[in-house]
Amino acid sequence: MNERRIRSIVIVGGGTAGWMAAAALSRSLTGMAVDLRLIESPRVDPVGVGEATIPPIMDFIRQLGIDEGHLVREIKATYKLGIGFRGWTRDGHFYFHPFGPAGPGMGNIPFQAYWLKMLLEGKAEPLEEYSIQAMAALRGRFARPVHAPNTPLNKLTYALHFDAGRFARYLRGYAESRGVVRTEGHVRHVSVRGPDGFVDSLTLETGERVTADLFIDCSGFQGLLIEGALRTGYEDWSGWLPCDRAMLVHSGRSAPPNPYTLVTGRDAGWQWQIPLQHRDGNGYIYSGGFSTDDAARALLLRNLPGRPLSEPVALRFRPGRRKAAWNRNVVALGLAAGFLEPLEATSIHLIQRGIAMLLKFFPDRDFAAADIDRYNRTLESDFSAARDFLLMHYSQTQRVGPFWQHCREIPLTETLREKIELFRSHGRILREEAELFPVLSWLSVMVGQNIIPRRYDPLVDGLDTRRIQSRLEELRCAVKECVEAMPPHWDFLSSTPRAGPSHPPAAPG
Ligand SMILES: Cc1cc2nc3c(=O)[nH]c(=O)nc-3n(C[C@H](O)[C@H](O)[C@H](O)COP(=O)(O)OP(=O)(O)OC[C@H]3O[C@@H](n4cnc5c(N)ncnc54)[C@H](O)[C@@H]3O)c2cc1C
User: Fold this and answer.
1) In terms of C-beta density within 10 A (0-12 exposed, 13-18 middle, 19 or more buried), how is residue 406 classed?
2) pLDDT in tens, 220-277
């Protein structure tokens, strides 16, 4: 064995980030004789509001070897096929951002190129009609993909909505059964070594001193180690992302849950409705510059889909990211690494990416600068790509009112400006390597928000128009037929087979 290998890891924080890290590391470091310990404070509650996810979460679950049906039941999850945007582009308007790949290409001409030609000529149906995720979502249907050729069902792509507290407890059960030692304790002091500025130890309120080779900071917004001890610095992105407050409340269910998140544009921000099996999660994300907390609370309560189950809770946040998510022997994950508001549900995914990249560049006790630099550059690029996608939503709307006017005046980043210009000129969608959101995401949001290309891609003129029309029609009919054969989402959830747990039950609540 490498004598400089990591022998001990301490994770500070037992929210979604902490337990995701504990679960993944306990699985991936099996056989490496690394002591894994997680410390969570009995005094500081996790934020507990990350309830919507995006499709890569399903890979995380599979890689842990977790039985999906069992997990879905235990964490009261529902399936998510995308996001419905109501009144976002303008009042009374609706568009859908579906998950999944765009339709098939024709030769080397991608789907969006030939669909956009037909759209500009007034001969295409709305984008939703060519997406199995969108059509299934809007009809309230769900099924898992089937592995058969020539059916849109084999591309069906989905994520989950879940109860964040239950998800963390489930992962805790998983991680503890694989040897992670949990300590309930409040970290009072973080000490830093003189010579190299590495974190040396933590002192708990009980007086216990805890040492480790590698520390993972999952302590939430404050970033107890990455910021409190190492003073890494934070890039404030509020110049691009206008919202900085949230008002949250759960409500009772009165109808079967839809397999999508519903987002509604409001005066000073937007409201979400996340349907779970037993309740809805609701929140209003808004700008403190354009609404008071009292007005936000009243607006949220006025617009709930069901009876509130508690008093609304207010939260404040600063959009942005830690200047380096990995500094010396501390890796920050979750809110400690940064926060982008939840419009496109990217935060849990960024935790997952942080864990995956940590495993890719897993250090030894020499902590090679090249590994750390590459990790930080990758995470920076992931955060920036997500920020640009969010900024596009805000900057390209026709909603009226001072908040939305302000959003339209936000200067675009260079990268986003280029993306929008390329799309406006010939409908081209530029994606950097490993960029999170696929072509269909950009296409549906740009078209949904009325960014329409001036011209279509000249290469489409090599295709016969009648062939394009019949290809689109075939696709539309195939999607329709498949959706009609899918069961209602709620029936699917209720009939999910009760497979036995693939690991010991979740930790007690
Ligand atoms: C309004 C809002 C809505 C969101 N919606 C979504 C969404 O839909 N989808 C999505 O992907 N993400 C969403 N997020 C983000 C998501 O909630 C977080 O990314 C996720 O919960 C991870 O949080 P965390 O574990 O980093 O921090 P936290 O949940 O804050 O956990 C911090 C942990 O650190 C511990 N701790 C703190 N101080 C100490 C100390 N001194 N000693 C010991 N332990 C300590 C606490 O006890 C706690 O266990 C949302 C966030 C907000 C604010």
Assistant:
1) middle
2) 999 999 999 999 999 999 999 999 999 999 999 989 999 999 999 999 999 999 999 9
Of 323, 275, 247, residue with least CA distance to 84: 275
Pick from 219, 243, 260, 436 the residue to mutate for probing ligand 1's pocket: most ligand atoms within 8 Å of its CB.
219
Specify the residue for token string 């489930």: 170
pLDDT band at 499; cut points 50, 70, 90: very low
Q: What is the mean pLDDT of residues 324-330?
A: 98
Give strand pairing partners of 40.
Answer: 184
Mutate to test the pocket of ligand 1, among 348, 349, 355, 382 (most ligand atoms within 8 A of CB): 348
Confidence of residue 500 (pLDDT cuts 50, 70, 90): very low
Average pLDDT over residues 436-453: 97
* Ligand 1 first shell, C-beta below 6 A: 12-18, 39-41, 44, 46-47, 49-53, 164, 186-187, 218-220, 224, 246, 283, 315, 317, 334-336, 342, 345, 347-348
State which amino acid sits at residue 230. L
Report the alpha-carbon distance of residue 137 to residue 305 in Å, rounded. 18
